[in-house]
Design a protein that fits this description.
5-stranded parallel sheet, binds manganese (II) ion, 19 strands, elongated, 38% helix, alpha/beta
């Protein structure tokens, strides 16, 4: 079973009647073979379903309408085996709502040097047929990913696989619900935003609740249920000796288990995909949910602290995209710097809520006071993160559009920090802390991010493309002068784009 095997993309091939029945039969056979190869590729986490070759405007319009109306179809992979006059595609592309990938491939990889003749030339027309398709997409300002290369090559299949992950996250977000317990942390700007715009452009909606709504669920959890869950904690995590023997600590864990069970029930009954909390509003709760949030994130829920519904939604999309991949993803915050000029780094963490999917090894379950909020001492998982490549992504409302900002980072080793009672990760941003942070600050990048060791910038760029939002990348190539101009030009682009694209 594929990691996202409940979803499918449709493989559609463009052609025309001009070539006659024999050629079209061949086109159909070749397309079937390519669709099957993609379907069985381990680099593509969804099903790839072959659809009969398209030769008329009516058939193209019909397949686009069917794709729109098929819930588990998350996009079209379109290939022009031969020339397919692109005016035939206008009506279909006009109504197509699902994501589109323009696959520019050719059935035969190599030119058969000794035998090439006009029959071969007439069958293998991608090189110009694909350009005709490219023109109509460009003319109609269709947002789509273009993948070029032979269909049997793994690197090519991987690009398609990455896009299908983004398309799955997009589909999951459509009609998706985020529960927001309490409101925004007072006076914080970046966690605010236009929820109507978010629903229009990203698909999810935010449901606000008072803490009493959640407390009602938590108070219904029985002691027995909580006892059972505490047993699970002791099986899954390292708990320091004596913790469970101490009555106050046991009480803390029981209370955390009740929070987890109540929160989980609330989210399941309401079919929520993510949630937010805020330590400024914990009325009726004994402590800020820590362990509970960590465990729910590990199960695939999106989360944002301090009322940050945008990051909760972004993390949910990240969790859909990383399904079945190694590395994990978490809610994250740029917390503290190590500013040694020879070796500058960022310490990423949060008050409690870091997802154990990114943990290097077993997590320690610990109970410590929280130096803010004035509530009982919360339980939390404490761990380190293994070295390797990672990305930090943030979603901001820029007033007239959403901006998805991404920085590539290297997770690095750090000195032991025995007194730090939270999960932590140390990274060096690309291209350097100085340039990356200047660029991030210039772009209005949030302090909350979705951090992923499983995904790359390509996943997020594909997602932004599908959503039609701005994507800005900070990587090895970033140059501050060009970056500042890119932001200015993007401002202009998003300001006027609706007016000129007709
Ligand atoms: Mn925070």
């Amino acid at each position: 079973m594929k990691a996202l095997g409940n979803y499918e993309v449709w493989f559609v091939t463009g052609s025309q009647h001009l070539y006659g029945a024999e050629t079209l039969k061949q086109v159909n056979q070749n397309s079937t073979q390519i669709a099957q190869a993609l379907d069985s590729s381990t680099s593509i986490p969804v099903k790839v379903v072959f659809k009969p070759v398209l030769t008329t405007p009516e058939a193209i319009t019909q397949i686009c309408a069917e794709a729109n109306n098929t819930a588990n179809c998350i996009g079209l992979v379109a290939w022009m085996h031969t020339f397919s006059p692109a005016k035939m595609w206008i009506q279909g592309l006009k109504i197509l709502y699902k994501p589109l990938l323009d696959f520019h491939t050719q059935f035969g990889r190599d030119i058969p040097w000794a035998n090439i003749d006009m029959d071969f030339m007439n069958l293998n027309q991608t090189a110009h047929g694909g350009r005709e398709f490219g023109f109509i997409n460009a003319r109609m300002r269709m947002e789509r990913k273009v993948v070029v290369g032979h269909w049997a090559v793994d690197a090519v299949q991987k690009q398609i696989g990455t896009w299908t992950r983004a398309a799955a996250a997009w589909q999951d977000a459509q009609g998706g619900k985020i529960a927001r317990f309490g409101d925004n942390m007072r006076n914080v700007a970046v966690t605010e935003g236009d929820k109507v715009g978010a629903q229009m452009h990203l698909g999810f909606s935010v449901y606000g609740y008072g803490m009493g709504d959640l407390v009602a669920y938590i108070s219904k959890v029985t002691d027995q249920e909580a006892e059972q869950l505490v047993k699970v904690y002791s099986q899954e995590y390292s708990i320091a000796t004596g913790v469970l023997e101490n009555a106050a600590n046991k009480n803390t864990l029981m209370s955390e288990a009740k929070i987890e069970l109540g929160l989980r029930r609330f989210l399941e009954e309401g079919n929520f995909k993510g949630f937010t909390t805020t330590f400024e509003d914990l009325h009726g709760l004994p402590q800020l949910p820590g362990l509970a949030v960590q465990r729910l994130m590990a199960d695939g829920y999106g989360f944002g602290a301090e009322g940050d519904w945008k990051t909760a939604a972004l993390l949910r999309m990240t969790k859909v995209m990383d399904k079945g991949l190694e590395g994990g993803s978490s809610f994250m915050e740029d917390y503290t710097y190590h500013l040694d000029p020879a070796n500058p780094k960022v310490l990423g963490s949060h008050m409690l809520e870091i997802c154990p999917s990114i943990a290097r090894s077993n997590s320690n379950l610990e109970i410590h006071p929280l130096s803010i909020g004035g509530k009982a001492d919360p339980a939390r998982l404490v761990f380190d993160v293994a070295q390797g490549k990672a990305v930090n992504a943030a979603l901001m409302d820029m007033g007239n559009r959403y901006r998805l900002l991404l920085n590539k980072v290297d997770v690095v080793a750090c000195e032991p920090m025995p007194k730090l009672p939270v999960a932590r990760v140390m990274w060096e941003p690309k291209p350097s802390l100085e340039v990356a942070t200047s660029a991030w600050i210039m772009a209005g990048g949030a302090h909350h991010t979705a951090f992923s060791k499983a995904l790359t910038e390509e996943h997020f760029e594909d997602l932004a493309l599908i959503a039609g939002i701005e994507f800005v990348l900070i990587d090895e190539q970033t140059n501050i002068h060009q970056f500042r101009n890119e932001l200015r030009w993007n401002d202009l682009y998003f300001h006027i784009s609706k007016g000129i694209f007709a």
